[in-house]
Design goal:
49% helix; 10% strand; single chain; globular; Rossmann fold; 7 strands; two-stranded antiparallel sheet; 280 residues; five-stranded parallel beta sheet
């Protein structure tokens, strides 16, 4: 049975899509081809380990790769994921990219606007959808993992550092995973993340996303993948009008609410997070 030996578990809206693409470009690293985020330890655990292992190379193919991984940023927030991962992959290595939690929350709001036709304001969503805020409580989430894994199992990067110097971040990753450096595709490294904003054909985009999720639940990923490769996806997933920057006073208020968790996180992971406290 082939299972991943490393996971990228978060955080949402913190560069994990970029990292997924870069990792896929390394010839010695395998990530699932059929689906980017398998979500086994979060949504689909009841389908069993045999279902999960079908996303990875067969025993005859696994020798082609030095490392087998998976990227699902929702794992960071799942209360059940840590113990499930520990039971299935006891020595799993875990990579996390953490972003200023206020900026992460606003970016996640932008994702909802872009993909779910969210009509409410950012502050309305903050008041009515607690997950938008709580997903930025990294200290709490990582403490949950540390009940089952040593800090030595983690590579924790800051989004702000990754964006400023991606090559240095990738050097840390190749060292952590013990794979050859400088084999990533440079085009993938330089690729910019999708911007958030209000899209054209918003309702059609929502329906397309629901159809994609339906296909994945039925294990019919190939149908969506054919649509993507044919270019049909672009009919719905068109460029959006960029979301305006977060209001400085709203950002400052959010950071005040996050401060106690940021301080606790600093103690847990041993990383100075003053970069998050600076108001831009």
């Amino acid at each position: 049975m082939t299972l991943p030996d490393f996971l990228v578990i978060g955080a949402m809206r913190s560069g994990t899509t970029w990292l997924d693409g870069v990792l896929r470009s390394h010839p010695d690293i395998y990530l699932p081809e059929r689906r980017k985020e398998v979500n086994f330890f979060h949504k689909f655990y009841d389908r069993g380990i045999d279902w999960y292992q079908k996303f990875f190379p067969s025993p005859g193919q696994v020798s082609q790769y030095s490392r087998i991984g998976e990227v699902t940023p929702a794992y960071l927030y799942s209360p059940e994921a840590p113990i499930r991962i520990k039971e299935c992959i006891p020595h799993c290595q875990l990579i996390i990219i953490l972003r200023n939690p206020a900026d992460r929350a606003y970016s996640h709001y932008g994702f909802k606007v872009k993909n779910l036709a969210e009509p409410r304001s950012f502050q309305e969503v903050l008041c009515q959808d607690s997950a938008l805020f709580t997903r930025g409580l990294y200290g709490q989430h990582i403490k949950n993992y540390l009940q089952y894994f040593s800090l030595d199992n983690f590579l924790i990067l800051l989004y702000e550092d990754v964006r400023k110097n991606p090559d240095h971040a990738l050097s840390k990753i190749t060292n952590f995973l013990s794979v050859k450096p400088n084999l990533f595709d440079q085009g993938m490294i330089e690729r910019k993340a999708n911007t958030s904003g209000r899209p054209h054909l918003a309702k059609a985009r929502v329906l397309a996303g629901k159809f994609r999720d339906f296909l994945r639940k039925k294990d019919l990923d190939w149908v969506w993948n054919v649509a993507k490769s044919s270019g049909m996806e672009q009919i719905f997933f068109t460029k959006s009008q960029a979301l305006p920057p977060i209001e400085p006073d709203v950002r400052a208020e959010l950071l005040t609410k996050y401060e106690s968790d940021i301080a606790a996180l600093e103690e847990v992971i041993g990383i100075d997070l003053d970069i998050w406290r600076k108001l831009c």
